[in-house]
Each structure stands twice: as C-alpha cells, then as structure tokens.
Automatic annotation (TrEMBL):
One of its GO terms (molecular function) is RNA binding. The keyword Ribosomal protein does not apply. Pfam families: CAT_RBD, PRD. It comes from Lactobacillus helsingborgensis. Keywords: Repeat. One of its GO terms (biological process) is regulation of DNA-templated transcription. InterPro entries: BglG_antiterminators, CAT_RNA-bd_dom, CAT_RNA-bd_dom_sf, PRD, PRD_sf. This is PRD domain-containing protein.
C-alpha cells in the first residue's frame, strides 16, 4: 500500500497499488514521520476502513476518530457487514459513523448507570421484523464486546439505524413491504365491512390481529405452505359450528388471498384466522355490554 495522505500520527489515507482503491488505515503510530508516496505495511493491530467518495464522510470519520476509540468503529464495521450480508441490503456509508457514535454513548451511559431511554419496540418489531431481528444480534454482539448488559430497547434503536440508512435493499424486499402493507389494509377493510367494525376504535385492540396478518402474508410471500391434518379438518368444522357468524368474513378473506396471491389457506390457517376474529368480536361485545350498563 502507498500513503496518499497523512491525517495524524494514527490515521493515514492509503491506496492499494493493484486495485487503486483508497482506504483509511488506523493504527497506533502508522502516520508517525510518514509522508505521501511512501510504502506502508499493515500490521495485525491496524484497522482498515474503506474510504467513501463523499468528502463529508471522510471529514465526519476523522472528526469522530478524535473523540472515540478505534474499537467502537471496529464493532460498528462488523455490525454493518453482518447486517448487509444477512439482510441482503446496502447501507448509507454514514451508518458506520452514526453507529459507532451511538454505541459509544450507549456504552458510556450503561457503565455510568445513567438509566435507559425508553423506546416502544412492539411496533418496530411488527413493522420492521427483519431489521429488528438483525438488531437483536447486533445488541448481543455489543454486549459481548464491551462486557455490559443493555436494555431490550437498545435493539429498537439499532433497528431504527438500519431502517434509516438502508440505501439499496434487494428490490423484491422493498416491493414485498408495500405489497404486504396494501394487503393488510385490504383485509382489514374486509373485516370491518363484514363484522361492522370501526378499525379506528381505540377501545378495541387490533394489534394481535394485525401481527397475525403480517406473519401470514410473510409466509405467503415466502411460499411457505401448511399441510392439513385430519385433526385440523375436524377442528375447523367444529369451529365454524361454534362461530357461524364468522364464516362469511373468513371466506371473504380466503377468497381475497386466493385471487390476489393465488394462495389457498389451509384449515389450520383458517382456524387461527377465525380465532383472531373471535377475539375482536368478543372485545366489541364486552365494550357494548359496558356501555349498556352505564
């Protein structure tokens, strides 16, 4: 590698002679008494970061490097690499910098026992399942590297970093989110029409139903099919016998999924759907009874 520029005693800009690719090399004393044009050999304790084209990125990286230790950049780099591979996504290059900064202050607060910043993570789990799942892995890795216990909400903060910096996901993944959201809204409209429900009613909790629909639609998109057993078929007959008022709604949803996705619900999936519908109707009936008593 050839030195392109010396930033300080510990950080230099280098270029690979074969690929002409520029990188930032960070290591104790790597820039001491060095000049542009000189050869440099990387040792095992040095860390290398790909230099992004944007000059703002370089300035931000160098500015933050004066404030926080190298290890935070290395941990952030590993997290970004793992997330990129597992999620099949490309991230904004500034994620490395913002993540390193976030981890530094998170560890600082944890070790100083300043308490945690609360973040409601239930909706993050539902809306950004893939990002949240990866964020949980990142949280575990941070805890191991810095020997500290972090609150569950930390996974939510990390997931938000992924979401806000996701630059170029696999196109099908982006499209699938839009399709899933549209289908969820369509099914909710079917339910509202068939069961005469107000989906904006805050007294009725639709969260479990929405979560069920999102997982159902994810399975449909992933083409994960359920096979019926004899017990499922018998149970389904018993369920519709007990709750005949829900059959039309369940059939309308099944027809929608068949027409839209060419997917035919199994009996077990129909059973789960009916039971979720039953919970919603039960909440509505309980609410009416309470209002009548008043």
């Amino acid at each position: 590698m050839i030195i392109v520029k010396v930033f300080n005693n510990n950080i230099v800009l280098v270029k690979n002679k074969k690929t002409a690719k520029e990188s930032i090399l960070w290591g104790k004393g790597v820039g001491f008494q060095k000049k542009a044009g000189q050869k440099i050999v990387m040792n095992k304790n040095d860390a290398i970061f790909v230099k992004e084209a944007e000059s703002d990125w370089s300035r931000s990286f160098l500015s933050l490097s004066e404030e926080i230790p190298l290890k935070y950049f290395e941990v952030a780099k590993k997290i970004v690499q793992d997330a990129s591979a597992n999620m099949q996504a490309t991230f904004n290059p500034f994620l490395l910098i913002s993540l390193a900064d976030h981890i530094f202050f998170t560890i600082k607060r944890a070790k100083e026992k300043n308490g945690e910043t609360e973040l409601p993570i239930s909706e993050i789990k539902e809306d950004y399942y893939k990002e949240f799942k990866q964020a949980q892995l990142a949280k575990n890795y941070i805890e191991q590297e810095f020997d500290v216990a972090l609150p569950e909400s930390e996974a939510g903060f990390l997931a938000i970093h992924f979401v806000e910096n996701e630059k170029e996901s696999v196109k099908n993944y982006d499209d699938s989110k839009q399709i899933k959201n549209r289908a969820t809204n369509d099914i909710l409209e079917i339910i509202a029409e068939n069961l005469h429900l107000d989906m904006t009613d805050e007294k009725v909790n639709f969260r479990r139903l929405k979560t069920h629909l999102k997982f159902l639609l994810t399975r449909i998109q992933n083409k994960e099919f359920f096979r019926d057993s004899k017990e499922d078929k018998k149970l389904y007959q018993q369920i519709i016998k007990n709750y005949p008022e829900l059959l039309d709604c369940e059939q309308a949803i099944s027809d929608y999924l068949a027409e839209t996705f060419n997917y035919h619900l199994s009996k077990s999936e129909q059973i789960y759907l009916i039971m979720h519908l039953r919970q919603i109707v039960k909440q509505k009936d309980t609410q009416k009874e309470a209002e009548n008593e008043d």
